[in-house]
């Protein structure tokens, strides 16, 4: 999660393959799959990771540096497994296409045509190329054309892959000129509270709370539970290949949604003067819920970290700095009077047992995160006399949909024992 990584943007295109060699590209993605599988297999066997690239490259029918990129990606998946255990140990027995990752000007090339199109040339196999033009959104084509013309934007690795049977190219572009503003130079702190089915944002300036937005994404939670149940069923039936397909589908679904949500977060933050987005470090420590099973842990863990990561790199690409704070008590503290007690919070409702302040509990947490961010930046914490009405939007496949505005929630159902359920 370094800043260097943060300045990379991925642009997605469809490949309009001119020559009759779509099957050549498909074959190359199958070859990439066997490179991936072989890498994972050797890593599981305990082969020294430094020795794997050469051992795999000897048998691979791909351009050498493309093989190296695919090997590096497979080892990245292993590393991620050891560090986070997000999706279980990577499989080395899946089949089907795997993204062909290539270095710019080695494994693939791009150029502007006289018609203003961007032409591509991908080395699918040694000495065998796939050519054509890229199709995509105006915004992405625009950035790529800029990158081809000016030095500040560098074109990096790309992945050729098949998505719903269509050939695509995902190109990484780095803006070497954009620097992330020094966070000390910020005038607004945006506190971000990530939950399983929403994210709450609060913008705090020296004048107090500027605005709050809650972005709901109940379908992410729903789909993840749904996929989990389906996977369990096929796994119990011993159908591993279906299990793997479902896992891939779930992963794509969740990542796609989280990308959309993170874009929304950055766009919202940009309306404020010199923003700095503040995240909680290791959120799962904050609520002492019993994450007994591995699945529970995974369900709760993944969206938090991924959404923070997507948001931080998209923010950096816009020059917006980010900061991390300690998550302790952010969900239990009353943002108005500071009284801190677990019983203040009950699911989505917050009611302070000292001053009686009532609020949407995730908004309250986002205010507390912003306050901690302000302290971290060494500002004086402004007096909070009132908080603006919480606005809610729902993030769906088609984009943001306005949902009814939530005012202060009622305390109906408030449980005196202060049980803090996070999922219903
Ligand atoms: Zn209070």
UniProtKB/TrEMBL annotation:
The cross-references to InterPro entries, in alphabetical order and at most eight, read: Cas12f1-like_TNB (IPR010095)
- Residues folding into a coiled coil are none
- The reply to whether Electron transport figures as a keyword in the UniProt entry is no
Q: List the keywords (alphabetical).
A: DNA-binding
Pfam families documented for this protein: Cas12f1-like_TNB
Q: A Gene Ontology MF term for this entry?
A: DNA binding
Q: What is this protein called?
A: Transposase
Organism field = Natronocalculus amylovorans
